[in-house]
């Protein structure tokens, strides 16, 4: 009898865990879809613009090889540091700022924080889910240029260029993430003084990622580029924490 009760207890406890896990997953899916629905039109526009930009990059690269021998183009890019994909530099950061602006408008930031605190989910979990939605939307919006640049490089250049282009363009996409987290931080921050400081910090970090360097120059320092981005992502939770403890400055 004791063993039977123990088995029933284990099965009942496991069933409760499965129900709770399923309920949380459905809630996360609902929140994700709801947040993505909010930015759907902007995302469609950015996605189409990215597709158009990728097509333009492919046409310009094809035209470049039609006017010059392959050896000349390779020499100009590999030895002289010219980049045929320069048009992609600022697109990710523009996308990140726009997505953050639509998600967290300054006029609704306090309302958003109030909803976080009154939700059945912890505030930091709900905010993290909102940020995850924005990050996924930003990645999907930039995905055509990522795939397009890889395909163009494989088609027209030696395979060694794939690695160089990866370490050249990845900081630009990190700048897009910085623009998203910085835009979210500025929008959620109710204090004008802190908002100005956050704008300056975000611009400085994004400028660091967008710094014009020799192609592939960040290959040896790439892991260190992730540290400022990680700190920027954590800083978005600070306004919510201050709001929770009623430390909002005037």
Describe the structure.
It is a single chain. The protein has 250 residues and is mostly helical. It has one domain. The protein has 10 helices and no strands. Helix 4 runs antiparallel to helix 6.
Write the layout of secondary structure elements.
Layout: H1 2-38, H2 40-67, H3 70-78, H4 91-103, H5 109-118, H6 123-156, H7 160-188, H8 192-209, H9 222-235, H10 237-244
Compact overview of the structure:
The protein has helices spanning 2-38, 40-67, 70-78, 91-103, 109-118, 123-156, 160-188, 192-209, 222-235, 237-244. With 250 residues, the chain is mainly α. The chain has one domain (30-244).
**Largest sheet, strands/sense/barrel:** none
Mean pLDDT: 76
Overall number of structural domains: 1
Q: Total helix count?
A: 10
Written as H for each helix and E for each strand, in order along the chain, the element string is HHHHHHHHHH
Measured as a percent range, the helix fraction is: over 70%
How many beta strands in the DSSP annotation?
A: 0
Structural class: mainly alpha
Strand content: under 5%
Poorly predicted runs: 5-21
Principal-axes shape call: elongated
């Amino acid at each position: 009898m004791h063993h039977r009760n123990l088995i029933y207890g284990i099965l009942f406890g496991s069933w409760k865990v499965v129900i709770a896990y399923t309920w949380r997953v459905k809630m996360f899916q609902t929140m994700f879809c709801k947040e993505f629905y909010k930015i759907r039109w902007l995302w469609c526009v950015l996605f189409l613009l990215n597709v158009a930009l990728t097509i333009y990059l492919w046409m310009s690269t094809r035209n470049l090889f039609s006017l010059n021998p392959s050896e000349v183009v390779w020499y100009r890019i590999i030895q002289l540091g010219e980049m045929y994909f320069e048009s992609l530099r600022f697109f990710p950061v523009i996308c990140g700022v726009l997505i953050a602006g639509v998600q967290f408008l300054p006029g609704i930031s306090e309302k958003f924080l109030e909803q976080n605190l009154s939700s059945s989910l912890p505030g930091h979990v709900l905010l993290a889910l909102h940020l995850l939605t924005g990050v996924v939307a930003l990645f999907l919006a930039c995905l055509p240029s990522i795939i397009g640049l890889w395909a163009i490089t494989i088609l027209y250049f030696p395979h060694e260029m794939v690695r160089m282009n990866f370490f050249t363009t990845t900081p630009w996409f990190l700048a897009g993430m910085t623009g998203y987290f910085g835009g979210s931080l500025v929008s959620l921050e109710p204090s004008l003084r802190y908002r100005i400081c956050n704008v300056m910090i975000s611009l400085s970090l994004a400028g660091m990622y967008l710094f014009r360097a020799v192609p592939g120059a960040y290959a040896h320092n790439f892991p260190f580029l992730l540290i400022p981005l990680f700190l920027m992502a954590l800083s978005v939770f600070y306004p919510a924490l201050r709001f929770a403890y009623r430390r909002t400055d005037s």
